C-alpha cells in the first residue's frame, strides 16, 4: 500500500500543472463552482475539497487519483514560518499589526463584545483602478460571534 500524498505535495503538483497548462486560479475555481480565494486556498492545501470538486479540478489539470485523494483530506491550517517572510504575506501581517487594535475597537463599538469569525468567513480580492497605480482590495467578511456567558 502506498502512503497518501501529503497536502503540500499535492499542492506542488497542482501549481505545476496549472502553470504548465496556462490555467488561472479563477478558471480552476470556475471549474468547481467555488469562490476564487477559497478554491485557491483549498488547492494550496488549506481546505478540504469534496470528492466531486477534487475529481473535476484534477481532470482539468490531468492529475491522478492520488492528488484527488489528498485534496479531500482535512488540513493542518495555517502556514509554516518560511512563507511568512514573503513580502506580500508579510504586508498582511504588518497591516494587521498596525490596524488590528483599531479594527478590534471598532468591531466592539459597532457590534459589542465579540469577535469576527474566521470559520464562518468569506474573503475576496479585486483590483480597483487608481490614477496613482491600481489598488488591491481585500475584503474579509466574517460572521460576528458575540461572547455569551
UniProtKB/TrEMBL annotation:
Transmembrane segments: none
GO terms of molecular function: cyanate hydratase activity; DNA binding
Reactions catalysed: cyanate + hydrogencarbonate + 3 H(+) = NH4(+) + 2 CO2
Top EC category: lyase
Pfam families: Cyanate_lyase, CYNS_N
EC number: 4.2.1.104
Keyword vocabulary terms for this entry: Lyase
InterPro entries (alphabetical): Cyanase (IPR008076), Cyanate_lyase_C (IPR003712), Cyanate_lyase_C_sf (IPR036581), CYNS_N (IPR048564), Lambda_DNA-bd_dom_sf (IPR010982)
Active site: 91, 94, 117
Taxonomic superkingdom: Bacteria
Domain Cyanate lyase C-terminal: 78-149
HAMAP family linked to this entry: Cyanate_hydrat (MF_00535)
Sequence similarity: Belongs to the cyanase family.
UniProt function note: Catalyzes the reaction of cyanate with bicarbonate to produce ammonia and carbon dioxide.
Name recorded for this polypeptide: Cyanate hydratase
Provenance organism: Streptomyces radicis
Organism taxonomic ancestry: Bacteria, Bacillati, Actinomycetota, Actinomycetes, Kitasatosporales
Gene transcribed to yield this protein: cynS
Amino acid at each position: 500500500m502506498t502512503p497518501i500524498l501529503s497536502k503540500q505535495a499535492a499542492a506542488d503538483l497542482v501549481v505545476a500543472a496549472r502553470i504548465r497548462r496556462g490555467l488561472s486560479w479563477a478558471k480552476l475555481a470556475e471549474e468547481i463552482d467555488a469562490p476564487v480565494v477559497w478554491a485557491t486556498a483549498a488547492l494550496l492545501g488549506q481546505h478540504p475539497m469534496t470528492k466531486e470538486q477534487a475529481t473535476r479540478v484534477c481532470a482539468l489539470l490531468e492529475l491522478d487519483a492520488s492528488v484527488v485523494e489528498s485534496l479531500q483530506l482535512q488540513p493542518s491550517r495555517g502556514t509554516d514560518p518560511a512563507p511568512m517572510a514573503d513580502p506580500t504575506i508579510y504586508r498582511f501581517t504588518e497591516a494587521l499589526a498596525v490596524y488590528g487594535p483599531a479594527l478590534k475597537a471598532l468591531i466592539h463599538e459597532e457590534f459589542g463584545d465579540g469577535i469576527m469569525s474566521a470559520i464562518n468567513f468569506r474573503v475576496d480580492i479585486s483590483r480597483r483602478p487608481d490614477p496613482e497605480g491600481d489598488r488591491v482590495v481585500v475584503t474579509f467578511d466574517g460572521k460576528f460571534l458575540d461572547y455569551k456567558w
